[in-house]
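Quick sanity check, SENP2 protease:
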Amino acid sequence: QAMEREVIAAFGKGQPDEIMSSAFKLKVTREDIHTLQNLRWLNDEVINFYMTLLVERSKKEGHPAVYAFSTFFYPKLVSGGYKAVRRWTRGVDLFKQDLIFVPIHLRVHWALVVIDVRKKTIKYFDSMGQKGDKICEILFQYLQEESRERRNLELTPKEWTLRSMEPHEIPQQLNGSDCGVFMCKYADYISRDKPITFTQNHMPLFRKKMVWEIIHQQLL
């Protein structure tokens, strides 16, 4: 009940630019938090903050090592090529991670690419069942360049599997507004090596949990 009260207060009236949470060089305002209200589209700030919480949790023992790109990474890669994002990974060795998450913003839709470095797979997760084979290819190309640049090593394409998850393999949304929450929760379950078992029915609860988690900067 105490948590519920905090969520209601966060959704309440107040200055839109009031900072509700600030960590990892990121800020989330009341206006950002309000995108977590039912049937609203999540914005970049909420998604980037949540992804960073997943990365922080992964530093604990017993969790796969996770790295998450910002939502601004993929558009930059597509518009400017490898050169435009070369410096994004300074101080990070992608090839020492177990999992790399790339949030993909498709105009009015969010999807997720999961690069599993352990299994050499690049998978596209879309809660509306769309295909993202081209996106997987662009990201494999990026990894190839990153490997040459950082390790002077070529990746062997035939060792890697690239594919879009089929609609029957992963939970699908039944409305037009929950794609961001689906994307965040795909990442949450995968980052714990857990099967993805949630459904559309969990969305109202997940949204409230995310409000609490962002304000408290810890995952439940």
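Posting the structure with no commentary besides this: DSSP finds seven helices and seven strands in the chain.
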